[in-house]
Amino acid sequence: MKINILHAGYCTAPEHIAIHGGHWRNIRFPAMFALLQHPHFGPMLFDTGYSHRFFDETKKFPNRFHRWITPVTLHEEDLLINQLAAYGVRPQDVSRVFISHFHADHIASLPDITRSRYIYMPHAYAHLRNLPPFEGIKHAFMRGLIPNDFDDRSQEVDLSKPTLLSEKYAPFRKGYDLLGDGSVMGVELPGHALGQMGIFVRDEAEKLFFFVADAAWLKRSILENRPPHRITNLLFPDPAAYRETLGNLHTYQLTHPETLVIPSHCDETIRAQKSDLAPTLTILTRP
Ligand SMILES: [Zn+2]
Predict the structure, then answer these.
(1) Ligand 1 ion: residues within 5 Å (CB)
(2) What band does 38 get if pLDDT is binned at 50, 70 and 90?
């Protein structure tokens, strides 16, 4: 599978919120998405990052609080659809979107992906499906980002069919074979959001990637087993589970240093993956 790690926009927030003992200065948190080009299933995505819809949805209160707390920057060329075009991928070509969780910065471009199936943990969405609009802010959820035909295209992970993972994934023991061919293995990463899902995937060179969404905001948190500021306990549905997940990621990364563990918002990690740059749109459209 060909793997490209990209991001659609970023927000800024103080580093010390993201990691205990961090600096007070504001840092960038890119909204990562990954383009996974599968030899059989074609182009697929892990999350989508921000889109213009995020700004439409946060024009009014209470959603406007999102923009106040974490100001967002999104340039035209960084839109998911423009970046896909640079890889020769049209939105309708994307066969599947693996949704880590339903926070706005992960799903804002779902409506642009017109034909894909949506794959996610059932309990990541069950509590949001009939949420009253004023409750959305508590879950960083914006209904306007959910496509009208979302339910028809959804393929929820079948929790009754877990795969027992081999020792090489320890301490993660239970996974879900999301495509049925072993190429995308979903794992639960509880704590940050209900039903948060990470995925293990291998690239063409057999390098293993572990996309861990918001189980940690910075790679340093994983390497040092250092959680975010205590105030974030107010944001997480299960702070104790968050600590346990972070501890598991720490153990995993120390025992599997060869795996590229990728938190969705770690600027340093995502920049380091940018070496394989796509040709820019300007170059593509030049006669
Ligand atoms: Zn999140």
Answers:
(1) 103, 214
(2) very high
